[in-house]
Amino acid sequence: MNNGLLLYCRRGFEKECAGEIQQLANDQEIYGYCIVSDNSGYVSYITTDLAEADTLAKRISFNQLVFARQMIVVTDALKNLPSEDRVSAVIDAAGSLPLCGDIRVETPDTNEAKELLGFCRKFTVPLRGALRKQGLLTDKEHNKKPVLHLMLLDSSTGWLGYSYPNNNSPFFMGIPRLKFPSEAPSRSTLKLEEAILLFVPKHQIEERMHSGMTGVDLGACPGGWTYQLVRRGLFVSAIDNGPMAQSLMDTGQVTHLMADGFKFQPEKTVDWMVCDMVEKPIMVADLMSDWLVNGWCRATIFNLKLPMKKRYLEVVKCLELIETKLRRGGFTYELQCKHLYHDREEVTVAVQLLK
């Protein structure tokens, strides 16, 4: 692979990532092909030349990609980097790079590749200095310039490229690093924390999710998702026939209602509804769109549990159902969907109704 796009993804979801980028590239009338290796944690999309890959990186919204954690324009494939002077070999291959403002030396998110992370950290320092000396990297970090990526499979093999800061993941390896809060009742809390981080822009968080707002958590037990709403000051109706963590009940912000999440209806509109119920994805998608269309909530974040086969097609079907019902209802909205780092066999969807 000398020219094309490199996309990081969760190990085991390479085919879904490939199907998605293939469709989106076809929509742009740029025709290439994917190279997929099972459980590799990445996908290569080969284009005719660098210009086509660059065009895709500008036209395809990174936020539109469900299964990709990062989107990189590849300028060169690196093989047999000499152990005595890898830096010079990378510099020699960097002629097609634009002036970049930051550098990330990364690996795919696999157990085998992650053993290289120590090497990546050490190698970044001399490489950064050499790139600056050659005028390929700004003297100081510049968040409006492209990001230079060196993705290594081992200490002598990888790909060199760049991503655009207004259309990429801002995180190393495309993974936000979150710390599990010890007071949260379950690790599922990290899924909602990551979703809020990605789906609600930082400059909007105070306006869209603040103290005094109301929320509903469908299938709340034991309260991992409720915890994220409570810590932001919301008053939450937790809907579940199972028990809630006492620490959440002690806040005075949670009302626990023993009810079926598929049958519960709020008495008045709430600001947020969140849902992590285990059910067929199309049934959850239908329920979530009912909450929006019926005016039961103004915004929602929810998970769709995916089948083992045809996962990409299932996501497309669910999103089409939601958007069809919203359009028929005359709503304007913002919809985002992502296979989060803390997701497994599921994707997370956020829908915000716009005024």
Structure commentary:
The protein is α/β, with parallel strands linked by helices. 31% of the residues lie in helices and 24% in strands. The mean pLDDT is 95. It has two domains: 4-174, THUMP fold, CATH 3.30.2300.20; 189-353, 3-Layer(aba) Sandwich (Rossmann fold), CATH 3.40.50.150. The strands form two sheets. The chain has a seven-stranded mixed sheet with strand order 2-3-1-4-7-6-5. The chain has a seven-stranded mixed sheet with strand order 10-9-8-11-12-14-13, with helices on both faces. A hairpin with a 7-residue loop joins strand 13 (333-338) and strand 14. The protein starts with a strand and ends with a strand. The radius of gyration is 22 Å and the shape is elongated. It is built from eleven helices and 14 strands.
Question: Quick recap of the structure?
Answer:
This protein is 31% helix and 24% strand. It contains 11 helices and 14 strands. The mean pLDDT is 95.
The count of DSSP E runs of length 2 or more, i.e. the number of strands, is 14
Mean pLDDT: 95
Please trace the helix and strand order, writing H or E for each element: EHEEHEHEHHEEHHEHEHEEHEHEE
List segments where confidence is low: pLDDT < 50 over at least 5 consecutive residues.
none
Portion of residues within helices: 25-40%
Task: Tell me the strand percentage band.
Answer: 15-25%
| Count of all domains | 2
Radius of gyration: 22 Å
Give me the number of helical elements. Answer: 11
CATH 2nd-level architecture of the largest domain: 2-Layer Sandwich
CATH class group of the largest domain:
Alpha Beta
Oligomer: single chain
